[in-house]
């Protein structure tokens, strides 16, 4: 049992509580600041199966409010710790995103994408 499992059990935490801690547990995705707010610049960090597979270029593919805004793709920069990172301006009530590499391999969270609630 992970520490997050212990918190969930002890305090009845759910996914939104974990979003306030700036992590999608065990999925290699973090962000700051946390909690994320609409209208802010947010840094998204990724170290998932694309990096594990040796991808050298990673892109954030994203939109807002359940993919109801124009979809954008931005190249992420490799960080000193091996993660990839990008800063984006947020809008709306939710940031929806996934990742791809230069070979068009995708990490879309097993078809669920990542959906980050944005506080107003």
UniProtKB/TrEMBL annotation:
It comes from Hydrogenispora ethanolica. SMART domains: CBM_25. It comes from the Bacteria. GO terms for molecular function: starch binding. Residues 39-119 form the Carbohydrate binding module family domain. This is Putative carbohydrate-binding protein with starch-binding CBM53. The lineage of its organism: Bacteria, Bacillati, Bacillota, Hydrogenispora.
């Amino acid at each position: 049992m992970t520490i997050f499992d212990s918190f969930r059990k002890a305090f009845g935490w759910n996914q939104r509580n974990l979003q306030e801690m700036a992590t999608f547990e065990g999925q290699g995705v973090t962000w700051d600041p946390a909690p994320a707010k609409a209208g802010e610049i947010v840094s998204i960090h990724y170290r998932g199966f694309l990096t594990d597979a040796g991808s050298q270029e990673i892109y954030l593919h994203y939109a807002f409010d359940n993919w109801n805004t124009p979809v954008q793709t931005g190249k992420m920069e490799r960080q000193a710790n091996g993660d990839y990172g990008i800063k984006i301006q947020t809008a709306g009530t939710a940031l929806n995103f996934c990742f791809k590499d230069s070979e068009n391999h995708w990490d879309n969270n097993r078809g669920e994408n990542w959906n980050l609630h944005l506080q107003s």
